[in-house]
Structure formats: structure tokens, C-alpha cells
Design goal:
138 residues, mainly beta, four-stranded antiparallel sheet, 0% helix, 47% strand, B30.2/SPRY_sf, ConA-like_dom_sf
């Protein structure tokens, strides 16, 4: 299955905004804007104009994921994400298989690839480092 950009928010009131910058996919084959897909967002997430996501409550569970609008089949991809506010160290930013449970803990996904706000980086489930720069905003 193709991968899509994804974020998972665990804290109520956490908010992220993607900066509206074209994303180049498959080295020149496609240029488009990455936006958060309201139709593929966890129960507790509120998506505004495809650019801002806020976790509103914890009614759907501790975790809620929103997927991006672009599927990534291959190539190198980059995008800028601005972190407005994170309550704790449970903000995951990465890629996910499009069909996974949007309210599940991303740490339980077998092929997870993410950068956790406490500085942990995993690629295809393998721990790369726990010493990356942690983030809370910016």
C-alpha cells in the first residue's frame, strides 16, 4: 500500500500547521501541495482548510492520526511542519500506511516511520536514535 504523510496527536489542545509549500514527489514526476485530509482524520481531530490540525478531546482514545492528501509510492519527499503547541512528548510526525486505524497507538504499527517529539526516530519500525533534537513548538 502507498504511504501517506501522517501525524498523531495525543494531547488535548495540541495543534500543528503545515506550511503551504509545494512538495516534490518522485523526483519531478509530480508537484503538489500536501494538505491534511479531513476525511482521513481520527475522531478527536479538527482539520481547518487542510492546513491546521487540532486535537480537541480524548474521547476516541489517547491517540488520533490524520493522513495527508498525497499518497507516496516511492522517491524522496520533504515538507515543512510548524508545531504551534504540544502538551507532552507524544506528537508523532512521519508516514503511515493509508489503511491503518486512525485512533491506534502508532508505536504498535509494524512498519511505522516517525519522528517523535521527545527525539526518538524510527524507520520501518527500527529504532534509529533516541537522541535527536526534541521539539515542543516551532
Amino acid at each position: 500500500a502507498p504511504l501517506v504523510a501522517a501525524i498523531t496527536l495525543a494531547s488535548e489542545e495540541s495543534k500543528i500547521t503545515i506550511q503551504n509549500r509545494p512538495t516534490v514527489l518522485n523526483t519531478g514526476e509530480y508537484t503538489g501541495e500536501l494538505r491534511w485530509d479531513e476525511a482521513r482524520a481520527g475522531k478527536d481531530l479538527h482539520v481547518i482548510d487542510g492546513l491546521t490540525v487540532t486535537k480537541m478531546a480524548n474521547e476516541g482514545g489517547d491517540y488520533a492520526t490524520v493522513l495527508g492528501t498525497l499518497c507516496l509510492a516511492s522517491g524522496q519527499h520533504s515538507w515543512n511542519i510548524y508545531i504551534n503547541h504540544v502538551e507532552d512528548s507524544n506528537l508523532f510526525i512521519g508516514v503511515a500506511v493509508g489503511g491503518h486505524d486512525l485512533n491506534a497507538d502508532p508505536q504498535e504499527m509494524k512498519h511505522r516511520t516517525y519522528y517523535l517529539s521527545n527525539g526518538t526516530i524510527r524507520v520501518a519500525g527500527k529504532l534509529i536514535t533516541r537522541c535527536a533534537e526534541p521539539y515542543a513548538e516551532g
